[in-house]
Amino acid sequence: MIDRIGIVYSEFDQLMGPIPKFSLPNVSKSFGRLIAQKSIDLLSTEEITNPKALAFLPFPTEKKKGVIRCIEWKDESLRGDVGTASLSLIFDEDDDAIFYKYIKDLEIVFDEAAEKIIELNKLNAGQDKITIQLTDIHEKFKKWLKELEQHEDGAKDDSEAFPDHDKVDVTSKYSFKVVICGDAGCGKTSTVLRFTDRAFRRTYIPTIGVNVSKKEVLVDDKMVFLMLWDIAGQQKFSYIRGQFYQGAQATIILYDITRAETFNDIRHWHEDIKSTIGDRGSSIGLLCANKKDLEHARKVTAEDAQNLATELNLQYFETSALTGENIDEIFYTIAKSLAVTIDK
Fold first, then answer.
1. Where are the beta strands (DSSP E) in the chain?
2. Quick one: 259 exposed, middle or buried, by C-beta within 10 A (0-12, 13-18, 19+)?
3. d(CA 160, CA 216)
4. I need a surface site. Which of 11, 23, 77, 219 has the fewest CB within 10 A?
5. Number of other residues whose CB lies within 10 A of the CB of residue 335
6. Are 39 and 68 in contact (CB under 8 A)?
7. Confidence of residue 153 (pLDDT cuts 50, 70, 90)
8. Mean pLDDT over residues 153-167, rounded?
9. What phi and psi values does residue 159 have, to the nearest 5 degrees?
């Protein structure tokens, strides 16, 4: 994984807009422009208003993802008296779990890098010195990742239902698309991470569009391959959700037991999915009351939730992405229901 990461440094030019200034290893011009455009435009105009916040952005055409940090500094020679740049750590989309898992540690590396870049820009140090600094930053990211991989080495999932598929003799292997949706901040991504990589992300980082993860589940003699589509909950992404629902064979709708409004939106999510995929879509569905570890702050009763689940023909579970309670159970339930459809 270490050799598959790269960094891209972009700046907002007064005449040309967002442009890539440096990449290591070098990326294509078109990919560099795409990273510059998405990173600077999104972080400066959307919900992420804190320049120190990190965001995960997908680049599906390249099968890549990026962790993005916006950088700002005072510069009276520029419009608005502010210079704007972004530092993007680019990696294979299949490798995203470790970055989610250790996001707090990654923030430290980004903070140090941002401070050095800001200092050089304030001093008008020039691109050559910034390039030297960025080369050093790239090495620090690689060192950080190497230490994490060593820390993670040998940490395998020993559950019989979630084995190392290379060591299991199975008669068949099937792939299914599972959509996970619900309001922003309900814990969708943390739930998926808890299942796929035993990680819990304490810092909320909005999903941009969709994150796709995968994991295999052994059901009797069948290896069920779950493709988990974690759909963004923000309203601004509503116009593109339909394309993400297409082909779903099972759905999981989450709400936060401490926020009644997320429960009140369950019908909206259910109708949104059905209006897109209709009868051709999944008949397998779960309703998950997440953040059960915050029982003291509960705003939605289990009885009300169970009644709604029955009305919508959904199976009901109460889960905690923090403690892991019922996380394996919901995905195993999905996998078992899907496995039954294989022989039909």
1. 6-13, 17-24, 54-59, 64-74, 82-92, 172-181, 210-219, 222-231, 250-256, 284-290, 315-318
2. middle
3. 11
4. 77
5. 25
6. yes
7. low
8. 51
9. -65, 135
- Does the pLDDT at position 342 exceed 80? no
Q: Nearest 5°: phi and psi at 294? A: -105, 45
Copy the structure tokens of residue 88.
Answer: 């993007």
Q: Across-strand partners of 324?
A: none
pLDDT band at 290 (very low <50, low <70, confident <90, very high): very high
Which helix (H) or strand (E) segment holds residue 38: the answer is: helix 29-45
Classify 57 in phi/psi space as left (phi over 0), alpha (psi -120 to 50) or beta: beta
- Count, residues in the chain: 344
Fold of the 165-342 domain: Rossmann fold (3.40.50)
Pick the closest to residue 253 from 203, 332, 314 (CA basis): 314
Mean pLDDT of 278-297: 82
Residue located via tokens 């009763």: 301
- Burial of residue 104 (CB within 10 Å: 0-12, 13-18, 19+) is exposed
Unique residue bearing structure tokens 């003799």: 169
Name the DSSP letter for residue 292.
G
Phi, psi of 200 (to 5 degrees): -130, 130
CA distance 61 to 200: 28
